[in-house]
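Narrative of activities, Objective 1.

The group set out to show that a structural description can be obtained from nothing but a protein's sequence at a throughput compatible with the screening campaign. Below is one input-output pair from the validation batch, recorded exactly as produced.
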Amino acid sequence: MPAKVKKIPVRKCTGCQEMKNKKELLRVLRTPEGEILLDTTGRKNGRGAYLCPSPICLEKAMRSKGLERSLKVRIPEYTYESLKKEIEAFEER
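Output recorded for this entry:
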């Protein structure tokens, strides 16, 4: 009898459109209150979209409005700026 193969969850980056392991990506979250933030745990309640942990993918998602489509809400410029700062801080770790 063959051994069970564990499935690895895969998600698509809204910036570069590449399928990657869920653990390699950052989750951007729209909370039920309408707040947009970075979910580092991946377990908070709300609608999520995934991004590679690079400012380049965030830039692509901004230009293509991929995050706005995935989260089904218009995202203001200041929110993108705070996401960019959070991603840069996450990259330095």
